[in-house]
Amino acid sequence: MTAEQKVRVLTVDDSRTMQGVLRKALSEAGYDVIQGGDGVEGLEVLQQASPAPQAIITDINMPRMDGFQFIEAVRKLEAFSRIPIICLTTETDEEKKNRARSLGATGWIAKPFNAEKLVWAIRRVTA
Amino acid sequence: MGDVMDDILKIFFEECDELLPELERGLGEISEEESSQETINAIFRAVHSIKGGAASFGLDRLVRFAHVYESALDGLRSGKVEPDQAIIKTFFLAMDVLSDLVAEAKHTGDEVDEGRIDENVRKLEAIIGQGGDAPASSEVGETPVPEDFTPVTVDLGGFDFDDHAEGFGETPPQRLTVTFRPHSELYSRGDDARNLLLGLQELLPVEEAGAMDVVCSTQELPALVDLPAEDARLGWTVRLPEPPGSALEEDIQAVFDWVGDVCDFQIARDGQAGEAVEPEPAEDAAVQEDVPVVPVPAEMVESVPQADPAPSAPASAPASAPAKIGRKREQNASIRVDIGRIGMLMDMVGEMVIGQASLESALTRDGALYDPELLKRLAVIKTLTRDIQEAVMAIRAQPVRNVFQRMQRVVREASSLANKDVALVLEGEETEVDRTLIENLTDPLTHMLRNAVDHGIESPQARQAAGKPAQGTIWLSARHRSGRILIEIRDDGGGINTRRVLQTAIKRGIVASGASLGENEINELIFAPGFSTAETVSDLSGRGVGMDVVKQAIQNLGGRVNIQSTPGKGTLFTLSLPLTLAVLDGMLIECRGSTMVVPVSSVVELVTVQMKKDVYTIPDGSHVVSVRGRCIPLIYLGDELTLPEENGTQEEPHHMGRAGEEGQMIVLVVENEAGARAALVVDGVRDQAQVVIKSIEKNYRQIKGVSAATILGDGSVSLILDVSTLIVSATKRVDTRALEAIAERAA
């Protein structure tokens, strides 16, 4: 599989540790990973990336622009109105999950997660 | 694998070192009653991030404590807990425990006493209790005692597909029927029925992938004219073999986990009640005639990235790995240092370089002290000094990547404004340059790239007419060359239209009409102040700054700009910059008893001229000198800088630097980036040396003609000349036409 054919995934998380873990897990599973440190940066990276990513994984609790605002903003971009967005979060409560859903999140993974769960989730939306 | 986890763990501890002080600061603000909701969010996030990170490494004790702490802070965040001094004290104490637990995990601290943890957990739980019966997060509400919060160590080994094959035995499988109908919301959330189908297929072992039957139900599909494009009207029935003992039903539930609210679905087992309950199979049987069974095409499955089966082998290791990694930690820990301190170190090293150079020159010049043995030892110190200098520079060095990547956006925005299709290719992003330089590169690069899109690349139509691809390309590259950094901006556009540039320059009075200039000289004109070839000021590059500003910015960084243009093929801008702004190579010159520094990068040549033969007075009274057939304005440095005349030295030979006086004089031909030259009349040249740049504006005030100061080896302060300003003021005085007339006469 050449670099061009790899599925590109954008991960948005303010924790550099999480970013490292995500990068490792996804790149070992054969994905091309690009990253943003919060919602604002995520949007920037998303719009600048060439080729564009095929899926997004985002944290919810972030400074500047949180995951909810990020999802809302991504859905407003015409080019990304239907990109799969997976929330990565420890927020297990239904209300938050529903809020993410109503804003257009495709799915979610609860932290702590393992690589298998993560890769499963990405495969689930990038088939 | 270990290495990467190692690195991530290192990042985690670094992050903890940033988050813990943030937590402390936040708690301090709350205690001083200066906090805002953002402060509370920030401290919550800090503990939350530590917990999340720790969970990835199976740092159990840390995770458990952070979890309780986070829950207590959540009460504060949701406003259910009012922070009084007692609560804040508990939070401070808990912070200390958290910090000690981090140190424990890092193996830089002793194991934290279990009793102390328990005591703090109890206090935190008391706060959670105060939050009332409905805390914001159900996680908090349901599990105040987080015994059930089991951290999961991230298994970062390969993704083993065999896991899914487990349990498939010889016994003939039962079949499960899954019926689902997605709502249109499923699609607007970025999901797709295809994802669900492939998700189901993946539940089967590879060799049985074909054993899945898929039937599409189209009965709800209206006639094409009535079909709203965004509506979801298809339903699907999938039959899968279920191996005995497998958790297939559970796995299927997992596939539909995210779409429960936007997709109707049912699972039924063959020959069981499920089928009877369901009306679906009958319906499907009806449509089965017109809609054939759709097996999922194999290539769809193949397009899914799969982990290389090879790395699955070490997958069993990670459980024990983190503990081992933790032990190795301390040795290669990194520290964060205030940039000011490194700057100071840099300054001192620079002075050491000068001190060493002056020592060397004193020893070699003065014949009496000449001693080969001494010189040999000095050479060792010289090498060491250089090494130290490079090592300090390396500390401040950063790759140009960040600046370069920002340019993608610049080009994208510029090309969409200009209705052009332009790709930016980055090369050498890892090239390292001094931090101060990087910060100052963004603006000039932004402008040059906008310019390249606007003026360099032609419209798609013009490109196709010229037999080029409609998409233009700009290459932005960086590399090191002989102690400098070379940045190239190359485009495959139309090149510079020299005729038009010359016409414009004449129209704007930048050059005299009838001047005969070489191609390169004409190209350089685009850097002249007030020059713009675009007939109308476009949105892009015409933002009130021309290439002259870019040139000035690059020059201020001690750099040079070069243009090479091939008509029809494109233009290449080359920026050559020093690796640092802290040190420069200078020529030490003497003038009226003062030693001054001229940056070597702006010196063209050093010549001795005959006053009678080579110096001319032009009608306006100023002087020019003819060097190799080119007339250059003379600058009497002493007068220009109004240096006091030295008493009693009128007869000294070095003071003959006046046109009209007898004999010879030494001139230093200097050039600015636009190629404009001037000849500095100096009394003598003392040496060439590396000097440390000290801001004069910061310590004194701005002086015309002087860019900075430095301290020489002998401890004296010396001024670094701002060659560019000197040239500009000299050329302004001199009428260019008069210059040409003299050149003709001299020829």
From TrEMBL, chain A:
Segments forming domain Response regulatory: 8-126
Residues carrying 4-aspartylphosphate: 59
A Pfam match: Response_reg
InterPro entries from the UniProt entry: Bact_response_regulator, CheY-like_superfamily, Sig_transdc_resp-reg_receiver
Keywords carried by this UniProt record: Phosphoprotein
Signal peptide from the UniProt entry: none
Gene3D superfamilies: 3.40.50.2300
Phosphoprotein listed as a keyword: yes
Name of the protein described by the UniProt record: Response regulator
TrEMBL record, chain B:
SMART domains: CheW, H-kinase_dim, HATPase_c, HPT
Catalytic activity, as annotated: ATP + protein L-histidine = ADP + protein N-phospho-L-histidine
Domain of life, source organism: Bacteria
Region (Disordered): 303-329
Listed EC numbers: 2.7.13.3
Start and end residues of each CheW-like domain: 583-732
Transmembrane segments: none
List of residues that carry Phosphohistidine: 48
Stretches assigned to the Histidine kinase domain: 373-581
Stored InterPro entries: Bact_Chemotaxis_CheA (IPR051315), CheA-like_dim (IPR004105), CheA-like_homodim_sf (IPR037006), CheW-like_dom_sf (IPR036061), CheW-lke_dom (IPR002545), HATPase_C_sf (IPR036890), HATPase_dom (IPR003594), His_kinase_dom (IPR005467)
Coiled coil: none
Keyword presence, Metal-binding: no
Biased composition, class Low complexity, residue ranges: 303-323
Domain HPt: 1-105
Signal peptide positions on this chain: none
Role according to the record: Involved in the transmission of sensory signals from the chemoreceptors to the flagellar motors. CheA is autophosphorylated; it can transfer its phosphate group to either CheB or CheY.
Name the record gives this protein: Chemotaxis protein CheA
Source taxonomy: Bacteria, Pseudomonadati, Pseudomonadota, Alphaproteobacteria, Acetobacterales
